[in-house]
């Protein structure tokens, strides 16, 4: 997937400084197909995304799906169960829809690539 910030509008402050507009994250409802991983001290959201989506940049999908778990760090709390949503492609599409400032500019090639890379994970659950 392309950098998720490529879909976020850049704005200028009153002093002319460039910055990103507020990012909107999609709601990821629980599913019967979700996986739950018991985290240890070495787990990180980016490593889990690599294990389950073959793309560490999709760490935010896992972090967003876990409202009750602290997401202010790449390390989920040791001993917590982290939900891994299986359909990250739909989450990416919704993220783009919420944040894309130009209609129909969805990068389907990136979405298809993300879909083809989903081969499951090696971490225990």
Structure characterization notes:
The protein has helices at residues 45-53, 59-65, 88-99, 108-116, and strands at residues 10-12, 18-20, 35-38, 81-84. It is of the alpha+beta class. It has one domain (4-114). A two-stranded antiparallel sheet has the order 1-2. It has a two-stranded antiparallel ribbon with strand order 3-4. A hairpin with a 5-residue loop joins strand 1 (10-12) and strand 2.
Number of domains: 1
**What is the count of helical runs?**
4
Q: Please mark out the parts with pLDDT under 50 across 5 or more consecutive residues, or reply none.
A: 103-111, 121-125
Overall outline: globular
Strand content is 5-15%
Termini separation comes to 26 Å
Q: Would you report the number of β strands? A: 4
> H/E series, N to C?
EEEHHEHH
Helical amount: 25-40%
Strand neighbour order, sheet with most strands: 1-2
- Rg over C-alpha atoms, rounded to the nearest angstrom: 15 Å
Main sheet properties? 2 strands, antiparallel
Topology of helices and strands:
Blueprint: E1 10-12, E2 18-20, E3 35-38, H1 45-53, H2 59-65, E4 81-84, H3 88-99, H4 108-116
Antiparallel strand pairs: 1-2, 3-4
Gist?
This protein is of the alpha+beta class. The chain is built from four helices and four strands; from the N terminus they run βββααβαα.
């Amino acid at each position: 997937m392309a950098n998720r910030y490529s879909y976020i509008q850049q704005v200028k402050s009153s002093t002319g400084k460039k910055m990103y507009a507020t990012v909107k994250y999609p709601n990821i409802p629980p599913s019967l197909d979700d996986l739950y991983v018991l985290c240890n001290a070495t787990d990180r959201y980016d490593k889990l995304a690599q294990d389950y989506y073959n793309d560490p940049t999709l760490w935010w999908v896992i972090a967003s799906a876990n409202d009750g778990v602290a997401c202010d760090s790449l390390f989920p709390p040791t001993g917590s169960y982290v939900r891994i949503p299986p359909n990250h492609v739909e989450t990416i599409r919704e993220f783009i829809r919420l944040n894309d400032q130009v209609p129909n500019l969805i990068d389907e090639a990136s979405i298809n690539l993300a879909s083809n890379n989903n081969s499951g994970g090696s971490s225990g659950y």
